[in-house]
Amino acid sequence: MFYWLMKYVVIGPIVKAIWRPWIIGRRNVPSEGAAILASNHLSFVDSVFLPLMIDRPVAFLAKSDYFTGRGLKGWSTRMFFKATGMIPIDRSGGKASEASLNTGLQVLGRGDLLGIYPEGTRSPDGKLYRGRTGIARMALEAHVPVVPVVMVDTDTMMPIGTRMPRIVRVGIVIGEPIDFSRFEGMEGDRYILRSITDEIMVALQRLGEQEYEDVYASTVKDRLKTPAR
């Protein structure tokens, strides 16, 4: 109830009126049943516009830090993430990664839509980077299709490090679902998982025509943080 209230009464109408988002391929999102929406990740606001522009709720896995803040700011952030369908997870790696996978599988097991950013983090420069294989494992274990989604100009609207969004019209392009049932039972094969993930990233690159670099976005971010000698 809270989700629908925020989407259709409180937050949604205001956001749509100010930024006038557009969408292509909305019909490619299954009208029922579980599916993974695999999106490029340009900005913090990607997780706001995608749920806003499709009819079904979408659950995203978000850093648990967003849900633990104190004071008025912490409360407002927590309420905002709940309103946009976020689910808190520990992203520290190891057992936490397995827990994140299980959380995602629970969402899919309910027959819901799960939003995933295969790159694992926001692009530092607008390029599309190598995908993490967790998405492939989820798709195979849950027996669900993967729907490629491209966010457009959200990085122009709210670049990394900025606090206030700019008034820029943003868009979403949704491609046709990809069926990986031909790999059923192979979720333990790391080469198959890599092949599936690469196929998803190729679909995203073709859909959005972003420049692609075959390294992890997190590696690029670490490189940018390291001072030159």
Descriptive overview:
It is a single chain. The chain has 229 residues and is an alpha/beta fold. Helices cover 41% and strands 16% of the residues. The strands form two sheets. It has a seven-stranded mixed beta sheet, with helices on both faces. α4 packs parallel to α5 (134-142) and α5 (134-142) packs across α7 (190-208). The protein is globular and about 45 Å long. GO terms for molecular function: acyltransferase activity. Residues 35-154 form the Phospholipid/glycerol acyltransferase domain. This is 1-acyl-sn-glycerol-3-phosphate acyltransferase. Keywords: Acyltransferase, Transferase. It comes from Microbacterium salsuginis.
Q: Could you outline the blueprint of secondary structure elements for this entry?
A:
Blueprint: H1 2-19, E1 22-24, E2 35-39, H2 46-53, E3 58-63, H3 71-83, E4 86-89, H4 95-109, E5 113-116, E6 128-129, H5 134-142, E7 146-152, H6 154-157, E8 171-174, H7 190-208, E9 212-213, H8 217-225
Parallel strand pairs: 1-8, 2-5, 2-7, 3-4, 3-5, 6-9
Antiparallel strand pairs: 7-8
